[in-house]
Amino acid sequence: MAGRIEDYALIGDMQTAALVCRDGTVDWLCLPRFDSHAIFAGLLGTEEHGFWRLGPAFPEGTQPPTANRRSYRGDSLILESEWDTPRGTVRVTDFMPPRDGAPQLIRIVEGVTGRVPMRSELRMRFSYGRVVPWVHRQDERTVAVAGPDSVWFDTSVETFGESLTTYADFTVAPGERIAFTISWQPSHKEPPPLPEPEQSLEATEDFWREWVGHCTYHGPYREAVIRSLITLKALTYAPTGGIVAAPTTSLPEDIGGVRNWDYRYTWLRDAAITLSSLLRTGYREEARAWREWLLRAVAGDPDNLQIMYGIAGERELGEAELDWLPGYENSAPVRVGNGAAHQLQLDVYGEVTEALHLGHMTGLARNDYASLLQLKLIRYLEKHWQEPDEGIWEVRGPRRHFVHSKVMAWVAVDRTIKLIESGDADGPLERWKELRDDIHRDVCEKGYDKERNTFTQSYGSKELDASLLIIPQVGFLPPDDKRVIGTVEAIQRELSTPDGFILRYPTDGEHAGVDGLPGDEGAFLACSFWMADDLAMIGRVDEARKLFEKLLSLRNDLGLLAEEWDPRLQRQVGNFPQAFSHVPLIDTALRLTASGAYGG
């Protein structure tokens, strides 16, 4: 069985990523891209679906030992795990060097004390665990081939094959370093160059040291902010500037349930808010690259704007189920692709416009087509903002007039008015000011429950929705407005879990709820960070700080967060690590730092 979600570490090269468990097992890796087929899919099945374990040898029939200690090397994505055994102590360093050529996963075993017997077990299964590759020796190297893919395995120790698995048994002495590398290459091409593990390790460390050095945040939550920034950078697809929501698919929001989705794509919403956090902490190059990706993806037809695209801008992301995989802890189905790609989500126009506006405000070099795109998006909204949509949570039930969607449509118009007023674009200023007022009036009349003094999830509904917490954050209403305070208090009262975290919206157990799906889910971590933001904005700063620091305590030992927290099982759930959790962590840290609302 795979480990708990929080038992995993992330390593990656800004083109794909691997998850490494505490026992030294790589249970998830897609090659050569985030959205490629997995060669290790044990995370969503069993060992038969692919894994690579490297650690101290252990008796047959027993569980592999977990590392006594693990951490990232400084501010990097280089993982170091240490085991204390009866024979001595050993360290394994795992990383993926940023690359122009073949993707590599490098693992270096280092003896610390004593002489420790070690074992490497490599079971490659292509196409998400369904295809057993042809493994053979070529030019004194081991290669696994299946169709268009080949994976080359290089090490200095002797290997042998047994039960469709490649093994290496060896002993490591103090100061001795033994490297293992897998490299992907199209099967019709020449073999990839022989790896240079030590040089690659040095270059990878240099890369992260230089990148982190650009961070402009030096507040009290720097450790958490830096780790979140590194995680967001790791979710960036370097060749195009696209940003994945998470490097995994089908890690469940409800253990044993059906709420399992593929997040290895670029949601415009997630990418836009990610870029906002990067811009606010000094990272303009990523913002420039994403803006270029956006302009290519949207092309000349913003009327057909999708809510998400592939990492190179692909539009077709057809959803399918992999019925040979039982799912993480039997949470089926396992899905690849995402059928929500063609939903109407009007809030996306607001998030994209906000990101473009922030780039403009923080000195990103002017791009005339970006300004033209912004104007085209508003012309589309002008015609369609009054339509119902699927909303920020991508409901699979009927479309509704979601309040959050209307508020973000207002944001899109407001930021575009500011662009025109700055002199960097031309547009019908007075008409769009009237449009802005019309949307505002519509939301306040139809999306607000006067009796309960709270905004509601959608027009005419009684349900609450944590996305309403963004109302003061985007400037739709001031924080001291009684309707804002009433909404914050209502959400805190009706959507809080027993341990004080925030649900997205009500669910209905075995019955299909407002989202069209059966089952419940955990507390959505982004919403809990939004609550901390709002509490600080309405003057309850001590409460905001306590909630924020409680949220920080949910991170795993490496500072990583999944999408949700299950208050019943007391564990992380959902895809991992999740950009939509790490972005608001950064934003809340910045807000609390600016307000002085922190301990110590």
Automatic annotation (TrEMBL):
This is Trehalase. One of its GO terms (biological process) is trehalose catabolic process. Keywords: Carbohydrate metabolism, Glycosidase, Hydrolase. It comes from Streptomyces mexicanus. InterPro entries: 6-hairpin_glycosidase_sf (IPR008928), 6hp_glycosidase-like_sf (IPR012341), GH15-like (IPR011613), Trehalase-like_N (IPR045582). It catalyses: alpha,alpha-trehalose + H2O = alpha-D-glucose + beta-D-glucose. Pathway: Glycan degradation; trehalose degradation; D-glucose from alpha,alpha-trehalose: step 1/1. Residues 2-140 form the Trehalase-like N-terminal domain. Residues 219-589 form the GH15-like domain. It is an enzyme of class 3 (hydrolase). Belongs to the glycosyl hydrolase 15 family. Its EC number is 3.2.1.28. The lineage of its organism: Bacteria, Bacillati, Actinomycetota, Actinomycetes, Kitasatosporales. Pfam families: Glyco_hydro_15 (PF00723), TREH_N (PF19291). One of its GO terms (molecular function) is alpha,alpha-trehalase activity. Its cofactor is phosphate.
